[in-house]
Amino acid sequence: MTEVDRFGGGSAMVWGGICGGNRTRLVVVNGTLTSSQRYRNEIFTPVVLPYLRTNGAGLTFQQDNATAHTARATREFLNQNNVDMLDWPSNS
Questions:
Q1: C-alpha angle 46/51/57, rounded to 5°?
Q2: Model pLDDT, residue 5
Q3: Could you give the CA distance from residue 1 to residue 53 in angstroms, rounded to a whole number?
Q4: Burial 49-68 (b: 16+ CB within 10 A, else e)
Q5: Which of 30, 37, 41, 60 is 20 to 30 Å from the Cα of 80, by its Cα?
Q6: Nearest to 47 by CA among 61, 28, 63, 27
Q7: Residue 72's Cα: distance from chain center in Å?
């Protein structure tokens, strides 16, 4: 008997943000998003910052503990842009 994967076994990485009845645009990420620089350049600067500037009065941003999210350069970038962050447990 031969096992067959009918759906190709592929995957896609996407990023999106939601808040109440609003949402950011969905970003399709090429490859994996492991670098802080790519996260800042492809997600935060073009998508998150404009969203927060338009809708962000009183919002607190939350993300998981992915390496690109917790990198020192990312934390400094968020601080420089006055993004209010929710602390997240290290083993979440």
A1: 145
A2: 67
A3: 57
A4: bebbeeebeeeebebeeeeb
A5: 30
A6: 27
A7: 16
CA gap 81, 89 in Å, rounded: 23
Cα–chain center distance at 39: 7
Tokens representing 57 are 């009065």
The pair of structure tokens assigned to 27 is 């970003």
Pair of tokens at residue 43: 């997600």
> Which two three-digit tokens encode residue 69?
């999210």
pLDDT at residue 88, rounded to an integer = 77
Task: Please give the mean pLDDT across all residues of the chain.
Answer: 88
Please provide residue 50's backbone torsions phi and psi, each rounded to the nearest 5 degrees. Answer: -60, -40
Average pLDDT value for residue range 60-81: 92
The tokens for 14 are 């996407």
Q: Both tokens of residue 13?
A: 């990485």
